[in-house]
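A note from the maintainers: we've had questions about how concatenated examples are separated. There is no special marker in the raw files; a new sequence line simply starts the next protein. For clarity in this README we add a label.
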Amino acid sequence: MEANLHEKPRHISKCLELAILLEASADKPGNVNRTASFKSTRYEHFLASAVAIASSFEHAAERGVLVSRGEIHVSAVGIGRVIKNSMVNVNAWQHGGNTLLGTAILLSPIAVAAGMTHANKRIFEVSKLRKNVKLVVESTTPEDAVNVYEAIRTANPGGLGKVSELDINDPDSKKRILEDRISLFQIFQKSSKYDAICSEWINNYPITFKVAYPFLMEQIERTDNLNVAIIHTFLKVLAVYPDSLIARKTSLEKALEISSKAKEILELGGFETLKGRENLRELDRELRRTGNSLNPGTTADIIAAALALAILNGYRP
């Protein structure tokens, strides 16, 4: 029997919270993890953020349940407010700066979509989940866009840069969005050329659903080691898709160079061979030499989304 209005959203939020905790805990190169930190951002900041954001995911899932019952239209979900509130909550519970903005942007539609999707024994069929994610993101409103602009200002991420149209730091941008009725989906269409998170949104999460998730499940089954599976999936995504955060902070050429090294590590056997581990440690050192300017943060966000799919579909560590 379908879980009630509160039980199902609580379950969904726990799944997404666990996904963030597992992603943050894996020994991925260039990211904060259990044994590595940046100057002002440490592992405990991610733990606190994962707990703080869970209530926003629960609310998002509740809105999805209401959509499934026909009580509200999908455009009335308020995904922008969900993302904004999640950043407010994260900032209230830790002092490590921006930890989960990209993850929140990716996971919030998944939370709504899971609320919309019928679950059989709390297992959410991934193909149906993806169809509902598409409905959620394509039904966003100008109000959602304004709220996400405010969420980004709240999170204050690095590497934003400046754009010629509807710049986040231009005070007139929000006014124009509302006057011209520009939806969040349309804003992300404009940003998708240089931001992989936005590209995932407008293309129905192709990296998450078609690359990261199936590769993660294959690695979990093959290695029987979640840490290794997450590291290998991280390397796989990084090898195929240059990290857009690195590209914005440095250059596309540098992002491509790092992708090439990730591919080489996988070809050497990754974490499972001595040579692979040596090259992995060298890549990790390289990514940390200049603080966090070479942090593959976008890749980490996608891995969190892949883990969310796995857990929603019944995987338990």
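[label: protein 2]
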Amino acid sequence: MPKTVYTAKFKADRVLEVISGEETLGAIAARHNLHPNVLRNWKKEFLEKAPQLFDESSHKRDQATKEHERESEYEELLKTVGQLTIERDWLKKICRSVWT
């Protein structure tokens, strides 16, 4: 029997139902044919990751790190292109002197 895969939206909606407290966790689980432990696990994960949503400094730091990595890679590529250009020009010069 294949494992059912739920979308992030479905999971978030079910967790928000549980958090609202209008129905019991068991009732929500039964209505959506879920095991109560599945909902508990989703709720736990939701609550653990919620602070990251509001942690802008972490997001900005990650973006800055990625930008720095891209810049470093770009500079390295420019160095390589420059080196290859010098080598090509040198080889052209050598070839011309050999064939003339």
